[in-house]
């Protein structure tokens, strides 16, 4: 085994082809440099330089070692830089789960900012429901999730990303479409487009609860899974819908978004990750998330 110190000395002599100048460049005495080269030659059992009183030249074996030495030293330098970047959370891999509704707001902003600041981190993205993300986090299948509370598992840690309000989506020809805010009771006779209980249990339960609090059970004309589907159906005059305010970003024509006068509780978006996870990349992601607009 040849130490990097000896390789550096060999490269310096090979580049200078002069032991005196190489010794000055390395800030060591010439006899010490000569002993280092002799040490390398002894270990490899080859002659690396043809030396006369007037000149120094590389042997064929010396030329081969020089090529290899450049690569070895370069690889070591790159390795040192890489591990420092990994330690700083600037390089590595991060698997991220996200709910579909977050793609209309916080998730694209967070991912764009993270890729800009940490281009060497490979992101693996997975669209999942809330329950799928919780299971994937527990199993270590993803590192972090963009999802909604509540999460009761003590093995998972969370961080608030954004608070969103529910709003009402009405067809533009609805009698109340010009209102600034309306109470849910005013929609008790309307047909509703509602999230499915199986795929969106949180939205389903929250919307049913707020309607019951307003004194009625919604008359469901159509169920849907995704926000953009619901807004499209509202645009088609198939009914009204209660959706998170991020639905405004879809800008689908024929729809009016109205605030709910009843002021129901917000629906939050959070980050979730295993409390035992100490990855520098994960920490960098969470730190950046805390600075995103709306957090």
Tell me the layout of helices and strands.
Elements: H1 4-16, H2 19-26, H3 30-44, E1 49-51, E2 56-58, H4 60-87, E3 92-98, H5 106-117, E4 121-127, H6 130-139, E5 144-147, E6 156-164, E7 166-171, E8 181-182, E9 191-195, H7 201-213, E10 219-224, H8 227-235, E11 240-244, E12 255-260, E13 267-274, H9 280-289
Parallel strand pairs: 3-4, 3-5, 8-12, 9-10, 9-11
Antiparallel strand pairs: 1-2, 5-13, 6-13, 7-11, 7-12
Helix pairs in contact: 1-2, 1-3, 1-4, 2-3
Task: Please provide a written account of the structure.
With 295 residues, this protein is α/β, with parallel strands linked by helices. The chain folds into three domains: 4-87, Arc Repressor Mutant, subunit A, CATH 1.10.10.10; 102-161 and 269-289, 3-Layer(aba) Sandwich (D-Maltodextrin-Binding Protein, domain 2), CATH 3.40.190; 166-265, 3-Layer(aba) Sandwich (D-Maltodextrin-Binding Protein, domain 2), CATH 3.40.190. The protein contains nine helices and 13 strands. The strands form three sheets. The chain has a six-stranded mixed β-sheet with strand order 8-12-7-11-9-10, with helices on both faces. The longest helix is centred in the N-terminal third of the chain and has 28 residues, at 60-87. The chain is rod-shaped and about 105 Å long. 29% of the residues are buried. The mean pLDDT is 91.
């Amino acid at each position: 085994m040849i130490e990097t110190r000896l390789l550096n000395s060999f490269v310096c002599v090979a580049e200078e082809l002069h032991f005196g100048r190489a010794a000055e460049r390395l800030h060591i005495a010439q006899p010490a440099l000569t002993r280092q080269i002799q040490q390398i030659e002894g270990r490899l059992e080859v002659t690396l330089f043809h030396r006369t009183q007037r000149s120094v030249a590389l042997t064929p074996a010396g030329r081969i070692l020089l090529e290899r030495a450049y690569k070895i030293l370069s690889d070591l330098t790159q390795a040192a830089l890489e591990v420092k970047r990994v330690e700083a959370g600037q390089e590595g891999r991060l698997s991220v789960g996200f709910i579909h509704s977050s793609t209309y707001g916080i998730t694209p902003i967070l991912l764009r900012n993270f890729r800009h600041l940490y281009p060497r981190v490979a992101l693996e993205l997975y669209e999942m429901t809330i329950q799928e993300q919780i299971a994937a986090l527990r199993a270590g299948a993803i590192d972090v999730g963009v999802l909604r509370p509540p999460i009761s598992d003590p093995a998972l840690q969370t961080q608030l990303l954004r608070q969103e309000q529910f709003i009402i989506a009405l067809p533009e020809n609805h009698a109340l479409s010009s209102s600034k805010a309306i109470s849910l009771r005013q929609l008790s006779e309307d047909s509703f487009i509602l999230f499915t209980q199986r795929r969106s249990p949180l939205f389903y339960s929250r919307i049913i609860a707020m309607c019951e609090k307003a004194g009625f059970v919604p008359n469901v004309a159509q169920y849907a899974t995704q926000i953009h589907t619901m807004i499209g159906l509202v645009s088609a005059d198939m009914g009204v819908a209660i959706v998170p305010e991020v639905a405004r970003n879809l800008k689908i024509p024929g729809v009016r978004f109205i605030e709910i006068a009843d002021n129901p509780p917000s629906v939050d978006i959070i980050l979730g990750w295993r409390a035992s996870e100490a990855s520098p990349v994960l920490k960098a992601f969470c730190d950046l998330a805390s600075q995103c607009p709306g957090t």
